[in-house]
Design a protein that fits this description.
Layout lengths: L3 E7 L3 E8 L2 E5 L5 H10 L5 E3 L5 H4 L2 H8 L2 E5 L11 E3 L4 E4 L2 E7 L8 E5 L4 E5 L2 E2 L2 E2 L7 H12 L6 E4 L4 H11 L4 H13 L6 E2 H7 L5 H4 L10 H13 L2
Parallel strand pairs: 3-4, 4-5, 5-6, 10-13
Antiparallel strand pairs: 1-2, 2-3, 7-8, 8-9, 9-10, 11-12, 13-14
This protein binds zinc ion (ZN) and fe (iii) ion.
Zinc ion binds next to loops.
Length: 248
Amino acid sequence: MPLELVTIRCLKDNYAYLLHGPAGTALIDAPEAAPILTELDARGWGLDMILLTHHHDDHIQGVPALVEATGAEVLGAEADARRLPPLDQQVAPGQALTVLGEPVEVIDVPGHTIGHVAFHFPESGMAFTADSLMAMGCGRLFEGTPEQMWRALRQLNGLPGDTLICSGHDYCATNGAFALSVDPDNADLRERLEALQESRMPCAPATLAMERATNPFLRAGHLAASLGMADAPEVEVFAQLRRMKDEF
Ligand code: ZN
Ligand code: FE
C-alpha cells in the first residue's frame, strides 16, 4: 500500500505535504503551523517526523510550533544544518534512509539554494522536490548556477514517469503562462492548464510524465530551435529559459 498523501495549502502560495501510513505520519516542509495542525486534528493524526528540503523561511518557520504541539522529530540536510531549525536527524545526499517504514532516497538538488535536497519514496512513487523541480517550472536560482540546477533537474527526470512530483509552491498561474509563452503549440500543456482552471485543484502533485510533457525546463531540448539555440548545449538553453522566466 502506498502511503497516503495530503497536500496542504499554506501561507500565500506554499504547499506542505502530509504522508500517512501504518507507521505514523510525516510532514514535508513546514511553511506555517496552523493549517497543518488543523489538518492533523481533522484526521486524528499525530505527527512523528518533519522532513525539511531547504532553509528558506517559507519552508521552515512552522517547525517550532509544530514540534511543540506534536513532539515530531526534525530531519534535514547535514550540509545546511547551520541554517535549518535544530535537527534531530542529519542526512546527506545518497544516504539510505527509512521514513514511516519506507526506504527514502535523499537527492542533492542544488540551484535554488545550495544544500537543497529532495526526498524520493520509490515504494509509494512520490518525490518531494520543493523549489527544485516544480509544477510547470523550477525554482529561482538564488544560490546555485544554471549548471547545478540543470544537473538536479536531469537527475529528477531520471525517476520513473509515474512518480508524483510534490513541489513547494502554487505558482501554477505564472508558471503556466510562462510555459505557454515559450511552448505555445504544446497541446498537453494547454490541456493541463484548462483542466487546472476548471477544477481549481492544486497544481501539485503531478506525475513526472506530465512534467516531462508540459514543464518548459524539462523541455529545453524541444524548445531550443524556437529560441534560436538549435545548436547550443541543452544546459545553455535551460539557462536562457531561466533568465527569461526571471524577467517574465
Ligand atoms: Zn525556497
Ligand atoms: Fe519556497
